[in-house]
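Hi L.,

You mentioned the student needs an example of a multi-chain input paired with its predicted structure. This one should do, with 1464 residues in total across all chains.
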Amino acid sequence: MSFSLGRLFKITVFGESHGFGVGVVVDGCPAGLRLSESDVQVELERRRPKDSITSTSRREVDKVRILSGVFNGSTTGAPICMLIPNEDVRSDYYELIKNIPRPGHADYVARIKYGGYNDYRGGGIFSGRITAAIVAAGAVALKLLRHVGVKVLAHTVNIGGVEVEGLDTNDIDKLEKAVEESPVGCADPKKSEEMLRVITEVALRGDSVGGIAEVLIYNVPPGIGEPLFDTLEGDLAKAFFAVPGVKGVEFGVGFKAASMLGSQYNDQFVVVGGRVVTLTNNCGGVQGGISNGMPIVCRVVFRPPSSIKIPQRSVDLSRLEEVEVRLNGRFDPCILPRALPVLKSVAAIVLVDHLIISQVIPRVLR
Amino acid sequence: MSFSLGRLFKITVFGESHGFGVGVVVDGCPAGLRLSESDVQVELERRRPKDSITSTSRREVDKVRILSGVFNGSTTGAPICMLIPNEDVRSDYYELIKNIPRPGHADYVARIKYGGYNDYRGGGIFSGRITAAIVAAGAVALKLLRHVGVKVLAHTVNIGGVEVEGLDTNDIDKLEKAVEESPVGCADPKKSEEMLRVITEVALRGDSVGGIAEVLIYNVPPGIGEPLFDTLEGDLAKAFFAVPGVKGVEFGVGFKAASMLGSQYNDQFVVVGGRVVTLTNNCGGVQGGISNGMPIVCRVVFRPPSSIKIPQRSVDLSRLEEVEVRLNGRFDPCILPRALPVLKSVAAIVLVDHLIISQVIPRVLR
Amino acid sequence: MSFSLGRLFKITVFGESHGFGVGVVVDGCPAGLRLSESDVQVELERRRPKDSITSTSRREVDKVRILSGVFNGSTTGAPICMLIPNEDVRSDYYELIKNIPRPGHADYVARIKYGGYNDYRGGGIFSGRITAAIVAAGAVALKLLRHVGVKVLAHTVNIGGVEVEGLDTNDIDKLEKAVEESPVGCADPKKSEEMLRVITEVALRGDSVGGIAEVLIYNVPPGIGEPLFDTLEGDLAKAFFAVPGVKGVEFGVGFKAASMLGSQYNDQFVVVGGRVVTLTNNCGGVQGGISNGMPIVCRVVFRPPSSIKIPQRSVDLSRLEEVEVRLNGRFDPCILPRALPVLKSVAAIVLVDHLIISQVIPRVLR
Amino acid sequence: MSFSLGRLFKITVFGESHGFGVGVVVDGCPAGLRLSESDVQVELERRRPKDSITSTSRREVDKVRILSGVFNGSTTGAPICMLIPNEDVRSDYYELIKNIPRPGHADYVARIKYGGYNDYRGGGIFSGRITAAIVAAGAVALKLLRHVGVKVLAHTVNIGGVEVEGLDTNDIDKLEKAVEESPVGCADPKKSEEMLRVITEVALRGDSVGGIAEVLIYNVPPGIGEPLFDTLEGDLAKAFFAVPGVKGVEFGVGFKAASMLGSQYNDQFVVVGGRVVTLTNNCGGVQGGISNGMPIVCRVVFRPPSSIKIPQRSVDLSRLEEVEVRLNGRFDPCILPRALPVLKSVAAIVLVDHLIISQVIPRVLR
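Structure written out for the whole complex:
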């Protein structure tokens, strides 16, 4: 069940970095949703490197093909299979290092787990390439969310310690525009420049750098999510951890809550325009695992990408001998800019699943 | 499915704060495990307040009764149902405020979600009381883990900003002993005192305070966890978010990774005593969602407990009118000390499920 | 996951024949359903032996207690745990034969599967006693079905070859009344008498006899059930096979279809009173796994109860030696009369799950 | 979840009759299984019509392509995606009758369920074409079963009332050979001829005919299957009901048990060659839902195929008016011969899932 996510809206991902390509089956999409390959293509484009500085990795074309589940321009209720073929890539290099796990990568654990039968070329199923399939599924989820007015946005708030602070996140359209315009997906133009500088410097040294993204979800009605185990927070967090490089997730003020008092933290209720809202949103829109009607706010930390050109220590597992490994290739020095659409996608997939379970998304759309 | 956790080792929790009690059904425990009520009782005792300062809440006796699944002192392979009756508690107070959601609590979302039919007394199913059932299930999981040599430990590393640093976590037994001896579950005696002071002060003002706990899991063989969606990190995070008050989860160096370079972060491989290990453990023992054989290290942040005696703004939902709410009762000013066994329990439950899926825990124990 | 049934409406069963008792947790019942212990008790009474001839088994009182999930007389949306304690029963006898599997029973497979750790007293979890828990959960499902006008009925159509034919099943109330009045649950009074005679004769010889029950489900709207794997037929069949003694399930004309032509079998469409209906109902109300609006008709065959007083061959597994086994006790010579409410219950549970997935049962009832 | 089957070995099916093609994702196949496209192709060939008399349907070439999960000739542990493109087919005919549900088919329920958005061409996802994807997944399962010595066989035992009796099913190889040689998959040569004659006559009249298949599973070790809900019988039955046309499933003597006495039915235990076996196999190798080591025997009834050339009554749903419908095309007069490999496949998939859960199939094959 490892490659599936969701209960009533369920995606199943397949494919490898150096094989035929990647793909996804979306089972449980309600019938009657207008859907075309270009709807999906648009989201895939967001995952492509915007800039030769922030990403020097291979220029994947990522042309999606919808194989099933759509008829006369609408979803039919049947599973939607989407394929994204790989471009031709050279795998020779991986033969050279197939016994030498790259530090930071999943090479070592994959070899142990699959007894050496795993496809080690480019990380196989552990490659970031698989996120193209997730984004394709996310495109379907995002279109469904538009039908119920829910909006998802992901932006960069920290790269290498350069942190965005005091950003106004109330004007969604303005925020979205600023994010789109930044090469690093950062809504603060000054910080965006600084981040770009950090990435450039790091890239020149053949190194990489980490960062933090924030995901904002607007207009989720109160009462979505389930208590105890299938909480919105738990399901979102689990989905975020599927994105390669994620090492932490927090909601609202997150880890800052450790130093706060209850009298500071508690979001007090008031009536505004006949609706119950909270004065603050320290909890990030989720209480007891369930949406309270305020924007859902979460942050996700990415470790620096594992592929760096600086020599590192590793072990030749065929001889159990320590060796030095020097990686060659075109690597992303920072994954944040390209990870934003992936975060948006997994958040949308989780939300749609919960909105179907809560009977907010109808079975047949009109 | 909201009240169930796990796939092959699955727990289903039930009960309320002011009803008959709480309980759990553990389905999928292998046959042949020696199990008695006192095995479970021991873990439940750890959840009780140690100290009149750190917790002024009701002195729950938490006497567990095993109703099924154990025969002649061993598990049978059948579901294990365990009941923990509530002591008599007064619920009158909750009638007075049933239309006024307490800030920070799930009162508001519960009312929306369940159309007002939820049991609002003491938070009903959202009460921390439900964690007694989780701890009972955790006791079974912890016993199973002992059979495969896996050890789980939870300790306090931050309360109200008082942070433990540079703790040696290699000597497990010593660490465990120090944690047991501290009234706040903190292994650093000096910091433990400081934390106790913070809690005392906060309690005197009728306020509450947050904190951070660290969960350490030792001796997990490499190769446990599944790639992509059912990662160890994702499943642990989802389970931690089931613990009331948790608002963030991070693995290894966690959010600090944002400011790190790949050359600093990557855990390089070396051979020690014929085994492949990593020089550092910045990733917290999990790569690509799968254990690498190093200790699993994660941290969990708790917001300050929602119940405080300081007046707060809320809304009388029956009239949609703003009111002031002043809570009376015996509240925990800091949840960390009592949450540690709960974190340990959910971690153990997740681990056992993964170890069964990976066919490491045998079906019939000897 | 073996002891759970359902996805959004999910029951988890526990307990043994000779332990504390049996019970069930119902997770996913919408909030706002009026529910009392007497609602459940009524269904449990139907499971009790009506007659000293058709059943000589122990007179279980089956007093249910609702432990959670109900508040002020309504379901809260939280898990409903129900307990049915066992009466004191003597288990000495089972010690004598614990190494000698009773033919027909699950003693042998249980011993193999659980390495001898299973509770062998009275069949443990394999006992028909567990069906009391299923009936308790079924009572909740049946109450939910009443809210959407769906009606479930189970009746005996064959005992020991005495077969009901040409029964009019259109007048549901009349049919239900006739079933209630018959000691064997057969709506045809003449056949009912014959069946009773068969059972009496069989019981006198210390033998047992099989039979066939029919389950009828009225007023299911068209479009319920999912294509391919989660069909109504598949989910109902799987649930029926959970009832001890069931060895076959068929829908509509069932196995008779083997000898039919397409021109005879196909249910042709006509318009009656502005509604599309079929002229015949050979398919039993399900096409492509999905309800077509006609009554759902299925039949379930029960093997003769395994416990008989006639000597049988078995093996003493402790010595791997053939022995003769003679069972003593009070046994049901025919399970049909007592199995009817169990069939009704599992059918109701499956239906409710599908009606929630299809968004027909609302989350909050009014 | 409707298009997925299995828990640890899970298949997800997609595709339509007149779209791009059909396909399947197999998640949970252990790493290290030798697998090639020709392994799958062999099973797909068995699904093709053998004979111009038993099947006049389109001559699908069914060329499978493995897109993922196989590397250097072995499975990697990653999801295996397999595609089977459709040949060009004409869909014009279906435009003419898109408002007129064909009797027996799922056209009517599909239209209701999906609000008219379903792909109605050739039945869309309800088409028997989808079984090609199931057979592809079954090929993987069958190869896994060979590693643990389990053998699955399906043969025709009844067509249009011509019934096989007294067949010796002990010599598996001989039985398999006889089944392969018969154009209708019947191991009794004389009955095979009679069945062929029935089919020929029925086809000439433009009619269709039903039948019964038997599935035999040899060498399943005792103790496989789970008690109560996830029984071998229940899981096999549910999977069989996914095969278009199946309307009933029985185990062992099945519905004949209704007329049997316990003293006749009970399978008594004896010791043969140091092993515990049963004298008879009336229960069909499954007791209490769990394998007892004897061959698993089940029978599945197929209704006559729905497509016939004889005029039938239906309703034009766009005008709610009764009409006569006359179908044109090339139809299978009897589905049995082509359904046998599908039954074998779903049985194999269910068995593999249970054998992995029971930890009999190792995670990494050698």
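You could point out the following to them. Chain C has one domain: 4-357. Chain C has a mean pLDDT of 94.

Best wishes,
N.
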